[in-house]
Amino acid sequence: MKIVRVTDPEKMHEIYRFRYRIFCEEIHMLDPKNYPDGEEKDEYDPFAEHFMILDDKNDIVGTFRLVLNNPLGFPGLNHMHLESLLETYDADRLAEFSRIAIAKNHRGLRNMISLVKLLLKRGCIYLKRKKIDFVFFAVEDAFYRIIMMTRLPFKKVAGGIEYFGKERNLLIMDYNELREKHPIFCR
User: Which end of the chain is more exposed for a tag (fewer CB within 10 A), N or C?
Assistant: First the structure.
């Protein structure tokens, strides 16, 4: 598998359709009536870097976005009412992994652990260029347990907060700590 950054408008439509399929049709996190064109997108997308996860046949098996500091803030912090986190972390050195969508046939434990590690490895190189030191994301308990199995330096900042109809945990990771403790990710 590989991760590619997407800037091409047609590929962006593929991402939005994939997200619609996962979030509206499969896991019912979002109401499909709010996306009559069959593309799931929101106000944070213009402020994000978008990525596809491709399998060996170059088929999309996942997507995610990395939201950088912007006038709207960060979706997870805003929705979870955790804007106070910005008192601890410099917003310009912070990024949020968001809208992580994984195809149903790639959601098994082994695949998910591999995907998390791939995401972090690709992220390490990209975030270093962007001068981002901290990444965070909101995850439900099942994904939280998978992330903890990686034994990577994630810290739980908040837990049990309702977000899109489920209780979620806010995790943050210091990429400098990842580089120091697990240099294999940042080569």
Answer: C
User: Would residue 16 count as lying in a domain?
Assistant: no
The residue count for the chain: 187
Higher-scoring residue by pLDDT: 112, 36: 36
Q: Can you tell me which residue has the tokens 């810290």?
A: 155
Instruction: Identify which of 167, 139, 166, 132 has the alpha carbon closest to the alpha carbon of residue 155.
Output: 139
Q: Which is nearest to 162 in space by CA: 100, 76, 102?
A: 76
Tell me if 35 is assigned to some domain. Answer: no
Our measurement of the distance from residue 57's CA atom to the centroid of its chain's CA atoms, rounded to an integer in Å, reads 23
Residue 86 sits in a domain whose CATH number is 3.40.630.30
Contacts of residue 164, Cβ cutoff 8 Å, sequence gap at least 6 = 29, 30, 79
User: Which H helix or E strand runs over 111?
Assistant: helix 109-130
3-state secondary structure (DSSP) of residue 159: strand
Residue 141 lies in a domain: yes
Whole-structure pTM over 0.70, yes or no? Answer: yes
- pLDDT tens by residue, 41-59: 999 999 999 999 998 999 9
CB–CB of 157/136 below 8 Å? yes
The answer to whether residue 108 is domain-embedded is yes
Query: Which residue range(s) make up the domain with 135?
Result: 44-51+63-186
The total number of structural domains that make up the chain: 1
The answer to whether 53 and 63 have CB atoms below 8 angstroms apart is yes
